[in-house]
User: Fold this.
Amino acid sequence: MIVLVGANGYVGRYFQAFFEHKNLLWKPFDWQLFLSENRNDLVNQLRASKATFLVNCAGYTGKPNVDACELNKAECLNGNVVLSRLIREICERIDLRWGHVSSGCIFSGERNKGEGWQEDDVPNFSFRRPPCSFYSGTKALAEEALGWRESRASADDLASWKHESEPSGYVWRLRIPFDQSNNPRNYLFKLQNYDSLLEARNSLSQLSEFVSACWQCVERKAPFGIYNVTNPGSVTTSEVVGMIQKMGVSQKSFNFFDSEDAFMKKVAKTPRSNCVLDTSKLESLGILMRPVHDAIEWSLKNWKK
Ligand SMILES: NC(=O)c1ccc[n+]([C@@H]2O[C@H](COP(=O)([O-])OP(=O)(O)OC[C@H]3O[C@@H](n4cnc5c(N)ncnc54)[C@H](OP(=O)(O)O)[C@@H]3O)[C@@H](O)[C@H]2O)c1
Assistant:
């Protein structure tokens, strides 16, 4: 039995659909139970449900966007950091393996020109390495709550992001999810509805491919640890907009902000992460996602109005 925490969110619903499609037994578990005082009761419920794996898609994401996290810091910290830590502790107590949906938004920019950030790079858009948004800060701190630390083998070495002992589950980094639906959470839909866009280069994750790749880690018994689960490559906002127009999904003429400063002054309360992630760790396991341009084209070709 797979336990799904955060089953009713944007990402959780994709896990639900995937498990149904694969005829895998799953059960939703309310994230609030993990924050309750009565741990023994929760442990008994998990044992009684014969849980074999736990997927955590719960988190405080901020509505309508991450700016809301700046106003609701306690909730954001609790939902992203404290909850993740409690889930890990409870799972370790009953020897239950887990997968946690993290985010690529703990990085900014590219590693070197054209190269993506790797799993053992230290997050550079975090409370420890500001600037960052409060949301991104909590997502990086959640990875610390799950056991990762900035460490150096010697004073001369570059810092790397290492687990304090042995990870007991997976950290799957999702980045700007998209699909083929008119869902306000879908990046391809969001772009069509903003008044002005910020030009930036990013890695993205096609949601059904993301979920399938995460589950392949479990099925193939991949080593526990962090995985960047994004479609290989990167894409700019103007490239995506060009594809939306070319595929006939929208003929709107899109406006762009002159600069990131103009974006910050006019619409945002906190800086946004724009970053490229490296996917070679996942690929080295034979878990392949389509190149990002192909995945976008597929979603636009199969667009559901
Ligand atoms: N969507 C993105 O752009 C994106 C990108 C990268 C990573 N992620 C990560 O992916 C995970 C799922 O995101 P999502 O887009 O599916 O979010 P979502 O649609 O906002 O769903 C969030 C889920 O978390 C639960 N939740 C609500 N308030 C919470 C709180 N205060 N503390 C803990 N959980 C709470 C919700 O449960 P109820 O149904 O009970 O309200 C819901 O199941 C999150 O960890 C998020 O940080 C998302």
Remarks:
- The two ends are 35 Å apart (CA to CA).
- The pocket of NAP is lined by residues 6, 8-12, 31, 57-61, 75, 79, 83, 101, 103, 139, 174, 177, 185 (CB under 6 Å).
- The longest strand covers residues 97-103.
